[in-house]
Write a structure and sequence with these properties.
This protein is of the alpha/beta class. It has eleven helices and 16 strands. It has a nine-stranded mixed beta sheet with strand order 11-10-9-8-12-6-13-16-15, with helices on both faces. It has a five-stranded mixed beta sheet with strand order 2-1-3-4-5. Helix 3 runs parallel beside helix 4. The longest helix has 11 residues. It is globular, with a radius of gyration of 22 Å. The chain starts with a helix and ends with a strand. 41% of the residues are buried.
Length: 354
């Protein structure tokens, strides 16, 4: 299942709105077929693996990261292909939450194929967060925070410089991460100080370009900001407070932005969901991160821990008040990994969920 989960990640940013899925077929202890869902509308992972396995699929074990589909969509039901190939056993990481596609496990059982559910479920669900979030009936996008943080908890030096707290390898990973989200967001101060582009500039080109979102309560984003230079290919949405003058809002619209009005972060996220954005990766600054944390609006944290100290710099998590160590919530650690090149000084990725 570990291999199937790794294969699934190859579809990151390429299959939306479909899930990412990996599949591995094992016969007598040997991998005889493997596949992943490579693109929206392309053959499903199970079918790709079955084609590679050929006749060796009979009586073999199929490991798949998501319950095989049981309906006709852009591809025929994977359940039918699995039964026809004579697979002897199916191990499934997570159930399919889509009521249209679900039911594959029951159909396999009815066909006499033994199944096992839940192997690697947590990791499979975490990788498919956009797909899973869609069926949770929440009125806001999935919200993740990505911050590159010094050892003493700063995201910029005392002068406000944040380029570059993290390493080259970490910044390459961030480009990959961006490709899997519906939107990339920052606070207005970060957008202005960093002259942020917020585009995906790595090797992976996502199927749908993420929308750039600026949380600009006071309407400070200048209409000549370079974010508007490529607005035709990478949309920009600016969220302003209701007190921002109509003329100022119109200036942003003329620059190419979609302007939403919201006086709280909760309402702002609801408005983004209303625009069809199912997920947003927040990349700063400290005030926005702190406010989202205080209001319980964060689903995941990607904290890149960098081996340097910045003293009187800008806090990564600002204005958190004075929580007590006895009562403050402790988050679940879901992943720790190195973003360093072998033999080089580098960064550590820490992933957390509530």
């Amino acid at each position: 299942m570990g291999l199937a989960l790794c294969l699934a990640d190859r579809g990151w940013g390429l299959t939306y709105p479909n899930p990412i899925v990996g599949a591995v077929i094992v016969r007598e202890g040997q991998v005889v077929g493997q596949g992943w869902h490579a693109a929206y509308g392309a053959p499903h992972a199970e079918v790709v693996a079955l084609a590679e396995a050929g006749d060796q699929a009979r009586d073999a074990t199929l490991y798949v990261t998501l319950e095989p589909c049981s309906h006709f969509g852009k591809q025929p039901p994977c359940v039918d292909a699995i039964v026809a190939a004579g697979i002897g056993r199916v191990v499934i990481a997570s159930r399919d939450p889509d009521p249209v596609a679900a039911g594959g496990a029951e159909r396999l059982r009815a066909a006499g194929v033994p199944i096992e559910l839940g192997v690697g479920e947590a990791r499979a669900a975490a990788s498919n967060f956009r797909f899973m979030h869609r069926f949770k009936s929440l009125d806001r996008p999935f919200v993740a925070i990505k911050l590159a943080v010094s050892m003493d908890g700063k995201i910029a030096d005392a002068a406000g410089n944040s380029r570059w707290v993290s390493s080259d390898a970490a910044r390459e990973w961030v480009q990959w991460l961006r490709a899997g989200f519906g939107a990339i967001g920052v606070g207005a101060a970060t957008a202005i100080v960093d002259d942020a582009r917020l585009t995906v500039r790595g090797e992976l080109l996502p199927r749908i370009t993420p929308t750039r979102v600026v949380f600009d309560r006071r309407g400070r984003l200048p209409p000549e900001h370079r974010m508007f230079d490529d607005v035709a290919t990478a949309p920009v949405t600016v969220v302003v407070g209701s007190h921002v003058a109509a003329t100022r809002r119109e200036t942003l619209v003329q620059s190419g932005a979609t302007v939403l009005v919201a006086d709280t972060l909760g309402v702002a996220l609801q408005a983004l969901a209303g625009e069809g954005l199912d997920s947003v990766l927040i990349e700063g600054g400290g005030r926005l991160a702190g406010a989202l944390l205080r209001e319980g609006l964060i689903d995941r944290v990607y904290q890149i821990q960098c081996p340097l100290w910045l003293g009187d710099g800008k806090a990564a998590w600002d204005d958190l008040g004075a929580p007590s160590v006895d009562t403050v919530a402790r988050w679940r650690l879901t992943n720790v990994s190195s973003l360093a090149e072998p033999g080089e000084r580098g960064d550590i990725l820490i992933e957390l969920e509530p």
